[in-house]
Design brief:
By secondary structure, the protein is an alpha/beta fold. It has one domain. Helices cover 41% and strands 7% of the residues. The protein has a 7-stranded mixed beta sheet, with helices on both faces.
Length: 403
Amino acid sequence: MARYPYAEQMPYYEPFDPDYSTSVMRKVLGPIVERYFRPRLLGARRLPPRGPFILAPNHSGNSFPYDGMVLDGLLWQRAGLAPEAKLRSVFEKELAVTWWMRPFGIDNFWRRGGGVDLTFDNFDRLLARGERIIYYPEGVPGIGKGFFHRYELQRFSTSFVLLAARHRAPVLPVAIVNAEWSIPFCFTWKPLDRLVQKLLHVPFLPLPAAPLGILFPWMWYLTMPARMIFVVGEPIDMAALLAEAGVTDLDDPDRTLLRQVADRVRDRCQADLDRAVARHGRSPFEARSLRRKLWEGRRRLLSLLPVGWPLTFVRHERDRRRPPARSRLHAFLRDLDLAAFYLPLGWPLLTLARRLRRPPYGFRGLTPKERNEIEGNFVWHLKDRPLPPRGPAPGTIGAPPGQ
């Protein structure tokens, strides 16, 4: 009998939009990944052809989660952008319920790209479905640790260790190298982080980048052109590690032993990361490669650089739902509100424009409930809004044949 039998009358909820995600990869994010971040994926042959399994990368301090976006997109590109081959990223709820934590305020961006809110129950249900999951075991402390603590893995959650063992899901560590250099001039202060998390629903406040981002909205999403290297490690059998540590009851485990195993896994991943950094971290920007790639894409250079990303992403979102502009002047005027990304203290203007414009570009005339649904401004619990039954078996996401 299924672990989570759904009532037949229960409505399904599937926000993943393959058409939108494919368009983003081909027209917007894909060119940025190729020419700005220029990533490499090593060890992809270790990825199982089907789930359940968990990819467990390290996070990069202080930056918007571009490391996760690049890894997710890179894996999907290798699978030919087939919808059934898309991995599920689990993310902290702040990314969904806070509009400036969605890239450029795009409605429900993370879920439309295949993401699912991170709760213990959601994680459990995803593995029970046989999903392939990208999960960052450091959580928010990993991305908020600051440049001075780069490549220092933070404490791992015990929950994913337990769930991986329950579902016999292998855990594949992923060492992300060079992404720590995305914002290499920032630090964080924990008391201030706790305050802004409570007041603004922002998990951390990198200094001095955050004040610049508050002053000029486009700089909130600023990142340097670090060449990201992703190294997939050998799979870890969590059930075997727990059994070796004496954990026999996976429904009510000894929490002390569980913590010890999580710490062992963290130490192993730290050793893998240290080796990867020693091998691939000597030149985090690779300036010669960057110059060559940007020169090749010089005809659309603005869209490849962070200063142009607000225009590129938001216009792409809008153009999918509106007819072509009648003239250059019309194209400029209908997106005039986007100029607020580049004005001092432009955040109130962006918020006001969203309130005054009619759907699909704003919320004028909508009830608060309708607006929250469109924005994705809620915590998604799979027990209340289950995913539809799985379709055909997913395709292989490793290297193409012959590579």
